[in-house]
């Protein structure tokens, strides 16, 4: 995937003080609610539709679209989706929101919540524990559920695609309202 541009948070922060930038945060709504760049708009990676986003930009599709996540990996996945859809003027923010916050750039801090990764661990562990107990007291066939969950966790680790995370991200406690304002601290 050569060709995807990357920008540091310092350069993007300076650019945002000179002109308006569009920053798309592809983290989950709960992650976004905890802390996000002031000007970021949340579109979770699992809901990302490049053509729809470009249509919403009202004639500014030729302007750069900056993509941010927690540390850069999901941002790059989002950039790949845009590239696959034919949009090459997307730029991944190096280091993501962690680097943005560490650089002292303006952020919105909200309600802390259990991260999606932690929710997956809780759900997977709970299912394995439950199926193990049921296999011991009811029927050994319940062990199949543990095997299924274990296979899902291994698959997620190998592919970076987790069905349980996608399912949990759609739960009502993981939904929030969107925002978007100026990224420049002096505006």
What are the defining features of this structure?
187 residues, alpha/beta, Oxidized Rhodanese, domain 1, 2 domains, five-stranded parallel β-sheet, 13% strand
Run of helices and strands: EHEHEEHEHEHEHHH
Tell me the count of domains.
Answer: 2
Name given to the CATH homologous superfamily of the largest domain: Rhodanese-like domain
Beta-strand fraction estimate? 5-15%
Strand order of the largest sheet: 1-6-5-2-4
The average pLDDT score comes to 88
Alpha-carbon Rg, integer = 19 Å
* Largest β-sheet summary: 5 strands, parallel
Structural topology:
Layout: E1 5-7, H1 9-18, E2 22-25, H2 29-34, E3 35-37, E4 40-42, H3 50-56, E5 65-68, H4 73-84, E6 90-93, H5 96-102, E7 107-109, H6 116-137, H7 143-159, H8 163-169
Parallel strand pairs: 1-6, 2-4, 2-5, 5-6
Antiparallel strand pairs: 3-7
Summarize the structure in short:
The chain has 187 residues and is α/β, with parallel strands linked by helices. The protein is built from eight helices and seven strands, in the order βαβαββαβαβαβααα.
Description:
- It is a single chain.
- The protein has 187 residues and is of the alpha/beta class.
- It folds into two domains: 5-113, Oxidized Rhodanese, domain 1; 116-169, no CATH class.
- Helix content is 47%, strand content 13%.
- The chain contains eight helices and seven strands; from the N terminus they run E-H-E-H-E-E-H-E-H-E-H-E-H-H-H.
- The chain has helices spanning 9-18, 29-34, 50-56, 73-84, 96-102, 116-137, 143-159, 163-169, and strands at residues 5-7, 22-25, 35-37, 40-42, 65-68, 90-93, 107-109.
- The chain has a five-stranded parallel beta sheet with strand order 1-6-5-2-4.
